């Protein structure tokens, strides 16, 4: 995130997916990740059109880059990428059915309205004109200088094109969304009309306390059958999981504290007890050899330091030590090595690359030629900094070149390559020099410097409080004993034994193949557990044990159900729909009793069910009755004749019988034209999402990912 905050690059690239890639000629390459593969294949079909691996990888790449820029995890985005690939294909199909066409000219004309560009004012000049020619030029520069970044732009463009197609599709279809005068007048009537009623309510929960109801699997299945689209599901697995954490014991904690105390004051074994953290003259080497975390030479603000020392460093002298103190699951001792104001540096650079280095993909010059050119440019710029921009044409970093070579304001904490940072730290405003990095030769010019708040360089000797071999063996023994006890047993026996022993038990009922993490678990082993559950060799009732890398934690998994793509398994969604189904069963019983009573007034029904007759004023558009939203009850109030009892009404919270006493009109402000505009606005707002859902619900979608992953597993 510091990179994105500090480096002012092309604004439209910062908004897009290739912001990180555009900084690749300055940023330390160790922080960049390769996010996608290149094996061919078809991952699925939407109405017969293929979703290729490239389609899927493009969507995943976009999501991962966006997540990386926003500081979110880049794992577990596969399912979201699949959904985006499906939706993009549906939009494209609808776009083509309408006979629409997205030309190159239309793309560039509409680009200014895409959120990626429209939300950044730097893409517009002082008069509000979109800098289309400038952006086109930048894309052309990418095409000729860096194939990888240009390929990333093509991925970005494809995502933008889908959004453009979606806007056109929705705009064309939404033109048919109209509201008639009669519709508006009816809406106004319903808004203004009030009914005064008496009613009797038999509450579901109160009834169930006296008349317990059991919801069977068949009851759930019958409900699902009536709502097939609502319960359309991808393949999933029902899992039973028991988690055995290898938490350090009190003995382990004491051993870690003893170890760090020894290193702090008595000396390390490597030095024969002569060199300790207190007396060492080479703090970075001592930390490197003895700490569980590497030495960090960065200067931090006091607020960024551990809570134990952040309020103490300001008044401390260099060499002061603190600790040992506990920080989460670590013991730490700290030493103040230096303090200084934080300098921010505004700089620009020209990168002269050569054939064979990381930035020289399309460069033919040799390393010797590159150095000669860089030294020559450096000498000219050093003598006359105003000539800097004349040499930007030689730069192999088109991203910074488009900004006059600027890499923006940086601090020592900015993750640039060390050589670049060293030059900035050791030179003042106006300095120009040639610096070599793995990307080539940088002609760096420091434009400005300013001092900030005090920063501190601290050496931290860290020891992780880990479970000992003894502790891990105890956990392993416990987990192994448990899995032996449940071999061949039912899921209920598995669950009951776990609960009896107070083990950490969970039962995620609809685990998807590509969801990444398992609810209630959340370990680095989740993906492996999911892959195991979806292996074609698995059968219901299978169990296995997994070890979480680096922790000694154990997971015992029980495969409780295999749900293929199609309609949801009733038991898998029991928690979701059981309350609804239960209320429907209760409603049926109550209704039968009301009908059998043949009551002629509400007092008789109130007495029969031991409830109180109540009164309320209801409205069709705001159907609140006694604190509950009851649209069916409001409907019955306006549908029944005055002074007559309604039929039993199956409400949200109980069964009602209503008697209407009177109707009145409470005229609200607003004319027909205003109501028409309001309804049209609401309908248009809801349209896009509902239209896309309708396309997806009615599409023939084939998902081959599970088969492909199973084949890959078999081949490994």
TrEMBL record:
Listed transmembrane segments: 12-29
One Gene Ontology molecular-function label: peptidyl-prolyl cis-trans isomerase activity
Keywords annotated in UniProt: Cell inner membrane, Cell membrane, Chaperone, Isomerase, Membrane, Rotamase, Transmembrane, Transmembrane helix
Residue ranges constituting the PpiC domain according to the UniProt record: 342-448, 587-662
Main location: membrane
InterPro entries per UniProt: PPIase_dom_sf, PPIase_PpiC, PpiD_chaperone, Trigger_fact/SurA_dom_sf
Topological category with respect to the lipid bilayer: Single-pass type II membrane protein
Subcellular location per the Swiss-Prot or TrEMBL entry: Cell inner membrane
Family statement: Belongs to the PpiD chaperone family.
Protein name: Periplasmic chaperone PpiD
UniProt lineage: Bacteria, Pseudomonadati, Bacteroidota, Flavobacteriia, Flavobacteriales
């Amino acid at each position: 995130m510091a990179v994105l905050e500090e480096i002012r690059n092309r604004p439209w690239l910062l908004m897009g997916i290739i912001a990180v890639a555009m900084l690749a000629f300055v940023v330390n390459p160790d922080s960049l990740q390769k996010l996608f593969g290149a094996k061919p294949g078809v991952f699925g079909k939407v109405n017969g059109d293929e979703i290729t691996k490239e389609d899927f990888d493009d969507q995943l790449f976009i999501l991962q880059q966006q997540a990386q820029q926003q500081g979110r995890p880049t794992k577990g985005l596969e399912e979201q990428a699949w959904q985006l690939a499906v939706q993009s294909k549906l939009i494209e199909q609808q776009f083509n059915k309408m006979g629409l066409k997205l030309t190159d000219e239309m793309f560039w004309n509409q680009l200014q309205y895409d959120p990626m560009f429209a939300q950044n004012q730097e893409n517009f000049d002082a008069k509000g004109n979109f800098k289309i020619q400038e952006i086109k030029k930048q894309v052309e520069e990418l095409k000729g200088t860096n194939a990888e970044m240009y390929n990333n732009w093509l991925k970005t463009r494809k995502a933008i094109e889908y959004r453009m197609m979606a806007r056109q599709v929705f705009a064309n279809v939404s033109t048919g969304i109209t509201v008639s005068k009669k519709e508006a007048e009816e809406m106004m009537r319903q808004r203004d009309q009030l009914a005064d009623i008496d009613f009797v309510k038999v509450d579901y929960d109160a009834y169930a306390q006296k008349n317990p109801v059991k919801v069977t699997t068949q009851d759930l299945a019958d409900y699902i059958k009536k709502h097939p689209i609502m319960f359309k599901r991808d393949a999933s697995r029902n899992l039973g999981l028991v988690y055995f954490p290898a938490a350090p014991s009190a003995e382990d904690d004491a051993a870690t504290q003893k170890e760090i105390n020894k290193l702090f004051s008595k000396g390390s074994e490597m030095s024969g007890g002569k060199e300790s953290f207190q007396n060492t003259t080479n703090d970075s080497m001592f930390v490197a050899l003895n700490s569980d975390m590497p030495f960090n030479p960065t200067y931090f603000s006091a607020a960024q330091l551990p809570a134990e020392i952040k309020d103490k460093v300001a008044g401390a002298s260099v060499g002061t030590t603190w600790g040992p103190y506990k920080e989460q699951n670590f013991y730490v001792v700290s030493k103040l090595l230096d303090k200084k104001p934080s300098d921010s540096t505004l700089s620009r650079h020209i990168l002269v690359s050569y054939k064979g280095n990381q930035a020289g993909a399309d460069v033919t010059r040799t390393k010797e030629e590159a150095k000669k050119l860089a030294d020559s440019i450096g000498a000219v710029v050093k003598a006359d900094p105003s000539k800097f921009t004349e040499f930007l044409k030689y730069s192999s970093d088109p991203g910074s070149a488009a900004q006059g070579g600027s890499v923006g304001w940086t601090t020592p904490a900015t993750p640039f390559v060390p050589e670049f940072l060293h030059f900035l730290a050791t030179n003042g405003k106006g300095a120009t020099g040639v610096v070599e990095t793995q990307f080539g030769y940088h002609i760096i010019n420091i434009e400005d410097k300013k001092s900030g708040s005090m920063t501190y360089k601290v050496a931290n000797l860290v020891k992780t409080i880990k479970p000992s071999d003894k502790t891990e063996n105890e956990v392993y023994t416990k987990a192994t004993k448990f899995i032996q006890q449940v071999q061949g047993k039912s899921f209920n026996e598995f669950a009951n034994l776990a609960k009896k022993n107070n083990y950490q038990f969970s039962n995620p009922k609809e685990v998807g193949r590509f969801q990444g993490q398992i609810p209630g678990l959340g370990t680095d082993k989740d993906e492996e557990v999911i892959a195991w559950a979806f292996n074609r060799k698995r059968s219901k009732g299978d169990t296995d044990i997994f070890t979480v890398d680096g922790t000694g934690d154990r997971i015992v998994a029980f495969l409780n159900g295999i749900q293929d793509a199609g309609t949801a398994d009733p038991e898998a969604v029991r928690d979701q729909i059981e309350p609804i189904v239960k209320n429907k069963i209760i409603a049926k019983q109550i209704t039968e009793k009301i009908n059998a009573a043949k009551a002629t007034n509400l007092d008789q029904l109130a007495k029969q069910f031991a409830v109180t007759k109540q009164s309320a004023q209801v409205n069709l558009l705001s159907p609140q009755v006694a604190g509950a939203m009851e649209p069916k009850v409001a409907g019955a109030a306006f549908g029944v004749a005055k002074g007559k009892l309604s039929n039993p009404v199956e409400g949200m919270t109980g069964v009602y019988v209503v008697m209407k006493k009177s109707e009145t009109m409470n005229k609200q402000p607003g004319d027909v034209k205003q109501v028409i505009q309001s309804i049209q606005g609401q309908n248009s707002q809801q349209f896009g999402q509902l239209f896309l859902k309708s396309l997806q619900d009615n599409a023939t979608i084939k998902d081959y990912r599970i088969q492909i992953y199973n084949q890959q597993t078999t081949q490994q």
